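HUMAN: I'm a chemist; might I ask for a sequence paired with its structure tokens?

ASSISTANT:
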Amino acid sequence: MDACSRDPLPEPRPPVSPSTPDLEFEQVLATCLEQMERDGSAALHAICASHPRLAERLRRRVSLLVAANLLDLGPSLERLPERLGDFEPLERLGVGGMGVVHRARQVSTGRDVALKLVRPEQLVFPESRARFRREVELSARMHHPSILPVLAVGETDGLPWFAMELVRGTSLSALLVELRRRFPDPARIDPSLLPEIVRGLTPESLREDSGFQAGPSWRAWSLGAARAVALALAYAHGRGVLHRDVKPSNVLVAIDGRIFLSDLGLASDPGESSLTRSSSAVGSLPYMAPEVLEGEPADARSDVYGVGALLYELLTLHRPFEAGSAASLMRAILSGSPTPPRRHLPRLGADDEAVLLRALAHEPARRYATAAELVEDLDHLLARRPTRARPAGVFLRALRFAQRRPASATAVGLGALVLLAGPLGWELNRMRTLRAVQEAYDKEREARTTSERHFRSALSAIGHVLRDTATHELEDVPRMQRARLVAIDRALELLSELERDRPDDSDVAAERTQLFLSRAQVLYDLGRLDEAVDEYERSIAAERALSGRDAPASARRNRADTLLLALRGKAKVLQACLRYSEALDLQREIVRLTRGRCAADPEDAGGKRDLAIALADLAESHRVVQGPAPARPLLEEGYQVARELAAAAPAEAAFAWAFGRLARDRGELELELGDDELAWRLVTQGLEALRVASALAPEKRFYQFDVATALVVLAEVELARGDLGRAESGYREALALLDALVQDFPDSTRYRRERANAKDLLAIALGNSQGRFHDAAELQEEVVAELEALLAAQPSRCDLRSRTALAAGNLANSLNNARERVERALELAERGLELLEPCRGLETYPIAIPMQELLLRYQRALALCFLDDLVAAHEAIEAFGAGVGDDARMVRFVSDLWNEWILALRRVEPASELRDELELEPRARMYETLRRAIDLGYRNLEELRTTPALDPFRGDPELVEILETIGG
């Protein structure tokens, strides 16, 4: 009978510790244990058959594990200990080279934890006990989002154990096995399936729903996962700790998308020289650095090599070196360079390959010196910027220069090259041009006449190559907005051809709906709002038509998600078009649908995030249409939901962003309601959360944009609290972020408009709060010019008309206050009124159009007074006064204008009986309107006592009486 047959197993005998570890045996044993977890004794038999020289030793080791109840060869051998300290083991989750992990319940708290025990055969070695003890000590010292914290430590009947946070998820190695099974070609990995796959690999008792979103591409997810591991290593290295066994089985993928680095059992600490300076190689062979295999001490670059090997496997589904035996594998690793990753994945970008090969360099000196350097290059890859591994050459430098500085590039003849070649070539899909996609499509179209499979491939080529590239992969690539639209329009053309033969095919209809939605999103990004509304409406109509067709549950869920995205997108565009009442109706429907989704699945974290954002959007429309009161409970509810999500998953960028958005919006509302301190706390909290989101996902430009908007709101709060220095600093930091976004995405009207808004608010702070009206006017001239340029390209947009009119009024105010270029102030006021004429009746924020018109009329009348045009000024004051109603502040402005008219009269008629006669009526109206303003609630005594405009009237009994009335 074969030495590895199941029966009988001999009595266990403790192995003899050799003077140097047998690396081949340890690797084979580790492989055997991993496969037995999946295939049971069949794996043991197969491993022994393929390694007859090691069969007897393998049999002895496995028998020890079975006898110690740390491994089973069948259900009858499952005998878990009843109690270990404060913990009751419930089920075994996995086995590694050093120990076994159980799910356990902590009796005192009732929570579930991961309980790790040492394998019995490992306990006979002093160094194994020391390593286990060191793993506990090192893990307890680590406090990082991607390193599991130690909760408790103990020993029961000579068996050491420790408890850690329970990760509901699976190992990266198990995920890779499943991906290889589903996707033999790594280029075809569908990242949208990742949450489903991770959930399916998670033990049933640990499964739960979550808001896990894999992101736009498998590449992006893989880079992000490697980045999380490298960040954890950089943290550990900074505390003098090496891991020395970085591999997929030591990386956990939580069901909510978080990444954890586990198993510090082989980690080294500089203070433990007897354990860490051995020349023996430790780790897992396929991921071990060449110098470690040769007996050299490990260092940070050895861990970097492990991350490189892990990322190589993620991107290509192959290991860097592959061989039929451990000896062959060792020779391959020691021989030099790994298999070029593009051999497995031809679409892999040159920058990605360069980073991989630098991390896997044979000589340590050629690798990244630290894990932090690797993190930096991974960030560059995610943001599509130049890397350390592949510095830009002449052409690439020119290309990126043209992307970031189009005006300068055009001057040297490079801009045209980028705009023509870039969008339709290298940047569009990095390895495919539109022509290549067309050729692939044509081949598939020919084949579909004989094969349904080819038809589906053609449809997939449209959806995944063109639509997904345009919608997701190029979304955050600088200067690619127009190219994205080109790709989507071409996809629609190809789909129309495909649709001729399949007019009733549900998948074709669903793809068309997705293309309408993608096109709407890009049009909104470009600021083409009317077209975006039309595309969203087409998407909504198509999606509602699809909802009546029979479909699997997953397809129905996708359609519901698409409908929500389309509804939310249309509502946002309507807000941008100042059609808030229409947006309000849509947003009520969105909140209702999202509440229904959450009620149907209370554990759906993604649904909760969507609900929080839907509440924030609804509150925004309420503030404009109905005022702040109905908005407050909506924002408070959304804030609580988002806060709980962010606390539960602190490494999830989408949840941090949602919480930051709700905290910022709540703070802005409290500022409007007059609670400056609460506003400051909330906006500060929101800004911190948004910075976290941006740090977790640096490639996401809208996170950077929201950091800038939060800085603007915080600066407004600082102004209200009287901290002018902090306010100015906040505005300038926001402007720096917005400048970078505008430079990278010059076609984004929203970024350019928000930059103009931040600059205008900075100018107002300099003028109104610091009296620097001349400096303010210089900035505001830039603002008006920028907004006029935007408006010239899209003259029908009332939001741009309103914003330009507001900026014109603010500049007129600065010029009037500085008594500089008053003719220009008059021109600006009249231009502002002209801009608002077509937009009456629309709702805007923060200043309604009727109020904007009033303020412009005030500036116009004031300028006419300063220009001593008494007749025109008198008419302008009358017109302004007729529209102020019962607004105390506006009535005070009427009094101020009569005051200025009298001063103008005195300049025109220095001394004459006619002047005295002409002054009687305006003086009476000045005091009449001042008293009325006070009766309506105006109480700014400081302004009345200090304004120079009233100095000539300080002796008037009427003014003395009024001031005494307020003072009393």
User: Anything to note?
Assistant: The first strand starts at residue 87 and ends at 95. The radius of gyration is 35 Å. The beta strands are 87-95, 99-106, 112-118, 150-156, 159-165, 169-171, 251-254, 259-261. DSSP finds 42 helices and eight strands in the chain.
